[in-house]
């Protein structure tokens, strides 16, 4: 680019990395020197005008540009007022001196108008001999800087140019047009106003590389459309200068600088020429221009929100001068363009922010409604991904992972989430994940852009959005890795690059960058989710407290039942026995039977209490799973039944039984109840038969107890496993009606299921299935039923 | 003279049934009955209304778990905490087979834990076994007192 100092590399690391490996330390030192070159105090100007520095309030000339000798002799003393100057006569020097006096007098007036004069102001047109000059004045620190440039055309031209600019760019019609067309208009207008052979509008990306967005060129000029210029083309201090002074021009790269000369000892100083239109530029930059085939250049800064957004850059193959008025128009063009861009960016950000906020509200609301589990975000995958303009997302909630859209496998996402956690930041964003987290290179096609929020480290809640790699081919205006070359002769002097030929680079591992509005709303999103998570944690804690209290009450209740309810039952049977013992002889046969009924009823009530307590305990006791050999367990129960005369006639058939991981006490209760039921309901048969068998599936162990007893009507199958549910009269079959309820509770505590199949008068089959992978959650948590 | 059996029982029905059961065991030991935990401790430490009973420990303490004022477990703890009486055999009598009571009783040093059976005949058998073991077979610790049967 024409206006840049090329051979610099930013002192920054990435620029340093670009350095050809062959560059030795000395060359690197020159890069360093280049970026620290005091370009704002070059001590010289370009010779297409004249420059004087003037002291205040004496208005004594401190410095003059050496080319001013062509105009006048240096004045060392205080200039006399214009009116009392010597007669001009025919002496051209006297004439010039007189004219300069007039200009300085005008400068006095200008200063008295109390302007701050921070930027050059046109004081007017003055004649020196037969030449007309534009005289510009500005203040640089403690001196006034007076610049004279030949006024070539009428100043009206500039104003006309500006009017057309406002029409072309200033109106609101561009608001809806794409950025590229806005930039095209700007390039075209710049071309029209200035007549430069090539005008470019380009934008700096986050790395400082410039990308050409629009251009307007005369036929013979090579197109730079879509090309990129490496950040190293513009050293950092030049960028600073561009931010402060939005315009600079070099009419002829082959110029010989005119040194600033002091008029006295006071004039020996390094005057800051930041704002001087005539400021001389670095010789390295002039070489860069010549390498590029450009003898004249001008650039106008596009400053958006106090940031150097881009430049409008003008090149001309031959020398080309632009008077002050047109430069002013060009500068305005830059400002109008900047304002348009700023308003469009703001509007776009605001609109995008609004969309995001709507999505945020919808996501947060549905999460809150679903009970506050961060996990439930994954239930609305479309909204979730739209929120991050992502193609995939991951929700990690209390360590559990849920993936939506296009994502790497869970293990890799989990590892990525761990990396995010290590960043210890609320919001983590990158559009080139592979550079900061190398493992992500393996799945760069899915995730190159990452937006992650860490909702709560404590509860391990994270939400990650993924953007895929956007592969693109970048056209560099010259190989950016060879931005400098060595001098063939001395081998040490630094030269700017000589090649601007198109150089292609394929850039991978990058995603669409995250916008500021996206990061801001993501932070809001995190905040909202955090509130939900914390509230939920509070609720869970209070619920746990409540449960604990209820459990305690329940324990106290059953404790009191077991003591206080059993005592009177025991007394009833005790006294009934005593009556029989002491006075049995005096009782009638009926009296003895009544006494027996009293005793039996009390005993039954005692059994009922015991069964109920056992049932309640089955819900509350913590499971202690271990290896249970069902075969042994069943054999020992069956052995007892065989000894019992009541069930001696039963024919047993016991198949191979599995080894289960379960609580042995619970399994004892289960098998005992099932076997006792089978015994009981088959006891009325002539050839009672009980069969115990098992079956294995992939997921579960199945154990069955079948009998050829009275069976049941399948219509009542749902009642079988309920507490106190009986399908038979008490006189038919005894029992408390709690046995099968206990079986069901014991099996369900293990995460299993129970099943009953029967037919009236044709026997019944009761079975249960225990999952092979016993669920950890089911094993540790007691139920809270009574 | 045999050392007495100290029966700590608040429920009148249980008291009567237990005394009948003890009677049927034909043990020669006197049975001293107290009705709550505090009274039991007063007896054991010869204080309060038992201050004039002299010294000496009972052959065995049959201690109900649920008692007014000071419950059975607290009485047991006091007994095991005193060097004079800590070696006196203590049998916990209770209505329930609540596991926590059982564990706690043995932790505190109970010699036996008996769930009162619903069936009276079973109860008599249990009491009889206990009496024979603790009041007859078991050699009492030194300092055990012998006295006549009396109802406190």
What about the largest sheet of chain B?
5 strands, parallel
What is the number of beta strands of chain B?
5
> Hey, roughly how much beta strand do the residues of chain A contain?
15-25%
Identify the strand order in the major beta sheet of chain A: 10-12-13-7-8-9-19-22
- The coarse silhouette of chain B is globular
Overall, the morphology of chain A is rod-shaped
Low-confidence residue ranges of chain B: 146-152
On the 0-100 scale, what is the average pLDDT of chain A?
80
Q: Helix fraction of chain B? A: 25-40%
Calculate Rg of chain A over CA atoms: 47 Å
Mean pLDDT of chain B: 82
Q: Approximately how much helix is present in the residues of chain A?
A: 25-40%
- The tally of helices of chain A reads 17
Total helical elements of chain B:
5
> Structural class of the helices, strands and pairings of chain A?
alpha+beta
Description:
The complex is a heterodimer of chains A (786) and B (152). Chain A is α+β, with helices and mostly antiparallel strands and 786 residues long. In chain A, strand 14 (392-397) and strand 15 form a beta hairpin. The longest helix of chain A has 68 residues, at 516-583. Chain B has 152 residues and is an alpha/beta fold. Chain B has helices spanning 12-24, 37-44, 72-81, 99-107, 120-137, and strands at 5-8, 31-34, 60-64, 90-94, 112-115. Chain B is globular and about 40 Å long. In chain B, helix 1 crosses helix 5 and helix 2 (37-44) runs parallel beside helix 3 (72-81). Chain B has a 5-stranded parallel sheet, with helices on both faces. In chain B, strand 1, helix 1 and strand 2 form a beta-alpha-beta unit. Helix content of chain B is 38%, strand content 14%. Chains A and B meet through helix 12 and helix 13 of A and helix 1 and helix 5 of B.
């Amino acid at each position: 680019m024409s206006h840049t100092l090329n051979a610099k590399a930013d002192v920054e690391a990435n620029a340093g990395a670009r350095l050809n490996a062959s560059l030795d330390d000395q060359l690197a030192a020159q890069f360093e020197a280049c970026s620290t070159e005091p370009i704002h105090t070059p001590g010289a100007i370009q010779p297409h005008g004249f420059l004087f520095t003037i002291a205040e309030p004496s208005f004594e000339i401190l410095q003059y540009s050496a080319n001013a000798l062509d105009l006048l002799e240096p004045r060392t003393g205080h200039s006399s007022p214009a009116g009392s100057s010597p007669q001009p006569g025919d002496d051209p020097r006297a004439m010039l001196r007189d004219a300069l006096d007039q200009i300085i007098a005008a400068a006095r007036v200008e200063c008295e108008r109390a302007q701050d004069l921070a930027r050059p102001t046109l004081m007017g047109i003055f004649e020196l001999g037969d030449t007309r000059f534009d005289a510009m004045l500005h203040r640089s620190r403690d001196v006034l800087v007076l610049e004279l440039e030949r006024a070539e055309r009428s100043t009206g031209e500039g104003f006309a140019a500006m009017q057309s600019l406002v029409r072309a760019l200033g109106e609101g019609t561009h608001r809806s047009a794409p950025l590229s067309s806005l930039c095209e208009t700007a390039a075209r207008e710049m071309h029209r106003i200035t007549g430069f052979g090539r005008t470019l509008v380009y934008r700096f990306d986050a790395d400082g590389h410039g990308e050409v967005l629009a251009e307007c060129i005369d036929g013979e000029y090579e197109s730079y459309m879509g090309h990129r210029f490496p950040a190293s083309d513009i050293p950092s201090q030049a960028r600073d200068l561009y931010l402060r002074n939005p315009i600079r021009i070099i009419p002829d790269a082959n110029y010989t600088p005119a040194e600033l000369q002091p008029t006295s000892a006071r004039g020996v100083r390094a005057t800051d020429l930041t704002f001087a239109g005539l400021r001389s530029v670095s010789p390295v930059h002039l070489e860069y221009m010549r390498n590029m085939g450009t003898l004249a250049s001008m650039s106008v800064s596009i400053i958006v929100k106090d940031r150097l957004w881009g430049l409008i850059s003008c090149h001309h193959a031959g020398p080309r001068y632009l008077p002050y008025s047109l430069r002013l128009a060009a500068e305005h063009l830059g400002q109008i363009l900047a304002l348009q861009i700023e308003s469009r960016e703001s509007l776009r950000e605001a609109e995008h922010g609004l969309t995001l906020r709507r999505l945020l509200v919808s996501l947060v609301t549905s999460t809150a409604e679903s009970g506050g589990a961060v996990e439930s975000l994954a239930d609305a995958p479309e909204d979730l991904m739209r929120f991050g303009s992502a193609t995939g997302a991951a929700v990690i909630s209390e360590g559990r992972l849920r993936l939506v859209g296009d994502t790497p496998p869970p293990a890799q996402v989990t590892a990525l989430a761990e990396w995010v956690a290590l960043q210890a930041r609320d919001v983590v964003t990158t559009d080139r994940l592979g550079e900061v987290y190398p493992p992500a290179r393996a799945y760069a096609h899915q995730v190159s852009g990452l937006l992650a929020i860490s909702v709560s480290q404590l509860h391990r809640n994270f939400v990650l959005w993924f953007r895929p790699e956007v592969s693109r081919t970048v056209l560099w205006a010259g190989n950016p890795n060879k931005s400098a070359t060595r001098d063939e002769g001395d081998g040490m002097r630094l030269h700017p690059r000589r090649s601007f030929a198109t150089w292609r680079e394929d850039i991978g591992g990058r995603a669409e960058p995250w916008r500021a509005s996206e990061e801001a709303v993501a932070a809001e999103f995190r905040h909202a989710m955090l509130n939900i998570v914390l509230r939920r944690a509070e609720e869970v804690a209070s619920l746990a407290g409540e449960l604990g209290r209820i459990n305690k009450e329940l324990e106290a209740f059953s404790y009191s039942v077991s003591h206080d309810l059993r005592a009177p039952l025991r007394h009833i049977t005790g006294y009934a026995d005593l009556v029989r013992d002491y006075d049995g002889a005096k009782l009638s046969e009926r009296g003895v039977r009544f006494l027996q009924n009293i005793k039996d009823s009390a005993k039954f009530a005692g059994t009922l209490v015991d069964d109920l307590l056992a049932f309640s305990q089955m819900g509350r006791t913590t499971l202690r799973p271990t290896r249970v050999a069902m075969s042994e367990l069943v054999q020992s129960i069956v052995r007892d039944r065989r000894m019992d005369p009541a069930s001696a006639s039963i024919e047993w058939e016991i198949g191979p039984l599995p080894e289960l991981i379960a609580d042995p006490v619970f399994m004892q209760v289960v098998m005992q109840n099932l076997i006792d039921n089978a015994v009981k309901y088959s006891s009325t048969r002539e050839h009672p038969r009980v069969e115990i068998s098992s079956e294995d599936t992939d997921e579960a162990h199945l154990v069955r107890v079948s009998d050829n007893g009275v069976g049941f009507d399948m219509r009542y199958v749902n009642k079988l496993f309920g507490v106190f549910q009986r399908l038979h009269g008490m006189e038919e079959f005894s029992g408390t009606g709690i046995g099968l309820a206990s079986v069901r509770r014991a099996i369900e505590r293990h995460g299993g299921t129970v099943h009953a199949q029967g037919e009236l008068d044709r026997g019944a089959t009761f079975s249960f299935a225990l999952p092979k992978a016993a669920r950890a959650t089911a094993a540790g948590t007691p139920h809270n039923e009574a | 003279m045999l050392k007495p059996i100290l029966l700590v029982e608040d429920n009148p029905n249980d008291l009567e049934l237990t005394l009948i059961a003890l009677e049927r065991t034909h043990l020669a030991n006197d049975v001293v009955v107290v009705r709550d935990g505090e009274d039991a401790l007063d007896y054991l430490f010869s204080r309060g209304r038992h201050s004039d009973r002299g010294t000496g420990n009972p052959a065995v303490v049959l201690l109900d778990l649920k008692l007014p004022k000071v419950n059975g477990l607290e009485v047991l703890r006091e007994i095991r905490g005193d060097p004079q009486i800590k070696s006196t055999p203590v049998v916990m009598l209770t209505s329930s087979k609540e596991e926590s009571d059982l564990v706690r009783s043995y932790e505190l040093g109970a010699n036996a834990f008996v769930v009162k059976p619903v069936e009276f005949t079973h109860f008599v058998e249990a009491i009889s076994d206990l009496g024979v073991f603790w009041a007859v077979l078991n050699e009492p610790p030194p300092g055990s007192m012998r006295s006549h049967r009396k109802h406190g």
